[in-house]
Specification:
With 316 residues, the protein is an alpha/beta fold. It contains 12 helices and 13 strands. One of its GO terms (molecular function) is mannosyltransferase activity.
């Protein structure tokens, strides 16, 4: 592959995720998650074709998952049987970020300021390149209301639910590849990384999280909508005509379509000890929540993103 990859030179999702052949084994109680690849999806018995690819993307450190996360991912496979399911572990994420692309020449350099991989891995980038559905690992669909033809419609170019602040959801969204919302979200992330004052104490929500998605969403529509002044209201909105014929659909009744693992619920750890579900998942997987990782991390640099880049580039 040439240093600057074009759309035609992108690795396939099969090449990117490298689903293990044969039987996987994990340390008890972890369970191995496999990709599911559906070929020639439009030749199956699906009721309609669809603009957004029938592909589900999820990401975690390892393919060995805590049982509750594994069960949540299996719900996706059951609810959307004609969708391919691709699991991106840390190695798959590294393979993707090792590539260079004309749209984002600053990507490789600025990613060196991303020290908290789990929370700042920028799933928007993968979606921009491949399209499909993205979900966090603790989210799963309600099978009675989320299926092959609804709520994502056949003519949708992008689809979001609403978070508790009525922002477009970052923990779940769907889009065609190269949608303007995804492009402008990436550019917004780069701007915020440039301005990052402390690489070891980032406010993830505002740097690579839902606030960046909110701005990418707003910029694509020029901060106004054909349905009224509120760009975050429910409905299908048109992006600015100069960006093409793209639209975005947003729904507010999140609880009607999705469920989330209750991380605060007390669950059994052993015969005598109860802990929160969050603690149990962290102990089983060895993956800390980014807030805990940030608070426990020993400072090694303590400077801005630009200062870190200078120390890496000009002082070596």
């Amino acid at each position: 592959m040439s240093p600057r990859a074009t759309l035609l030179e992108l690795p396939s999702l099969d090449e990117l995720t490298r689903n293990p052949a044969g039987l996987m084994t994990c340390i008890d109680p972890l369970l191995p998650i496999q990709d599911r690849i559906v070929r020639n999806v439009n030749d199956t018995k699906t009721p309609t074709t669809r603009r957004i690819p029938r592909v589900i993307h999820v990401s975690f450190k390892s393919r060995c998952l805590p049982p509750e996360m594994y069960d949540a991912m299996e719900v996706w496979k059951t609810a959307l049987p004609y969708h391919s399911f691709y699991f991106h572990d840390d190695q798959a994420v590294d393979r993707l970020f090792a590539l260079s692309f004309p749209e984002f020449p600053q990507l490789k350099s600025l990613m060196r300021c991303v020290l908290f991989r789990g929370a700042m891995k920028i799933d928007v980038w993968r979606m921009y390149l491949y399209g499909g559905i993205y979900s966090d690992m603790d989210q799963y669909p309600i099978q009675e209301t989320f299926g092959e033809v609804s709520p994502i419609g056949q003519d949708d170019y992008a689809f979001f639910l609403s978070d508790s602040w009525n922002r477009p959801s970052q923990w779940f969204f769907a889009a065609v590849k190269r949608h303007p919302i995804l492009y402008f979200t990436m550019q917004e992330i780069f701007l915020r990384l440039h301005k990052l004052e402390d690489v070891e104490r980032p406010n993830v929500v505002f740097v690579t999280g839902p606030d960046a998605v909110k701005f990418g969403y707003g910029i694509s529509m020029g901060w106004k909508t054909d349905l009224g002044k509120d760009i975050y209201q429910e409905g299908t909105h048109k992006c600015l005509p100069k960006f093409g014929d793209y639209t975005v659909t947003k729904k507010r009744n999140t609880e009607h379509y999705m469920k989330q693992l209750d991380m605060k619920e007390m669950v059994q750890w052993n015969e005598t000890h109860r802990i929160t579900r969050k603690q149990r998942i962290e102990w089983q997987s060895g993956v800390q929540h980014w807030m805990d990782e940030k608070n426990s991390r020993m400072r090694k640099f303590g400077g801005t993103c630009l200062e870190l880049l200078y120390s890496l580039d000009a002082m070596t």
